[in-house]
Amino acid sequence: MRPADLLAPTASARQRPRVVVASDKFKGTLTSAEVAAAVTSGVRRVHPDAIVDAVPVADGGDGTLAAAVAAGFDLVPVTVSGPTGEPVRSGFARRGEVAVVELADASGLIRLPGGIPAPMTATSYGTGELIAAAIDAGCTRVILGVGGSASTEGGAGLVRALGARLYDANGAELTEGGAALSALATVELTELTERLAGVEVVVACDVDNPLTGPSGAAATYGPQKGASPAQVEELDTALTNWADLVARARREPAGAAADLRHAPGAGAAGGVGFAALALLGAQLRPGIELVLDLVGFHQQLAGADLVVTGEGALDEQTLHGKAVAGVAAAAAEAGIPVVAVCGTNRLDVARLEQAGVLAAYALTDLEPDVRRCIADPVPLLRQLGEQLAADHLPRSTMTTTERGAV
What we know:
The chain is an alpha/beta fold. It has 2 domains: 3-57 and 300-405, Rossmann fold (3-Layer(aba) Sandwich); 64-288, Glycerate kinase, domain 2, CATH 3.90.1510. Helix content is 41%, strand content 18%. The chain contains 20 helices and 13 strands. It has helices at residues 3-7, 11-14, 32-46, 64-70, 103-107, 125-136, 156-161, 190-196, 217-221, 229-249, 256-261, 268-279, 287-294, 297-300, 323-333, 349-354, 363-366, 370-375, 377-392, 400-405, and strands at 18-23, 51-54, 74-81, 87-95, 98-102, 141-145, 165-168, 184-188, 200-204, 283-285, 306-314, 338-345, 359-362. β4 (87-95) and β5 form a beta hairpin. α3 (32-46) packs across α19 (377-392) and α10 runs parallel beside α12. The longest helix has 21 residues, at 229-249. The N and C termini lie close together (12 Å).
């Protein structure tokens, strides 16, 4: 259906129920597009004449690239260095001069060979290579989703791929990874500054952690990436040295470095947030808000009777910057009711209402065995689509003749 049709539907179309399915992925099970396809199939079993529009979304982590492509961006394949140096086939999404880069797809936990953590040596270098490729292709606005990183190195690898030079006290270039930053003595930014001239960077960021300290990148997220308590301490010390030397290279006045390393979001993605703020001149925005703007979600709401959102598990994290909460907030502003589909639901009715969700439909409501839900979720999702359509969509008043003309 053309956008103009949504804004000015025909007499027949106005009597057909319209649903917007804007779900995040079911992590490790289904992509956003697969969730939408299954729900759509279920809705149409109840309302064969329903207009169902799929708008895959993400919160800035893995799935952001796919959401951009689904929204009409072109995928530009690029082979880059993975988090431990092995080549990985990734890419960026492009529309005009705008590029979308997903850190998780190049430098994320999902790219660790064999899933084996590398907390001291993992790097964000490949993400920097993607940004460089986008700039070389003529893009002047880069939207960077930073969720799901495998490294804790302050974005040092990312900026190196863009031209920054990092040296130890002997003038040798540093190796990759957070641990190496303890030996950092000099940061050279000339080439990086030239490369980024005229380029706007916007980071999808949903955390407010600082770079260093007890709630910093190493302390908060290092253990999730395989770091031991001793390694967390070592990484935090290394990140402190990194922040000090970045401030010196930027010739910042006394105190400015301390303020920046403790800026909300500086600790995102193992400190990539800090590098983005300090060296890329980036703006940090909530991930789901950025993605909703990117995919034109607000425009898609025109004329909708119901919005279906979802993710693998509805829990307390859902209420804090995740895709479901963002979709529900945007739909509420437009006065459109929202329901959610999920694998499991850990929120009671009051918490769901707080998030703006009328009802949640979980796979485990139909099949208590979680393993079966994971192994074969599509038939269950179709059933949930039928249930929510029966519960929340108005019955069509179209005549038989009108249905035949659709």
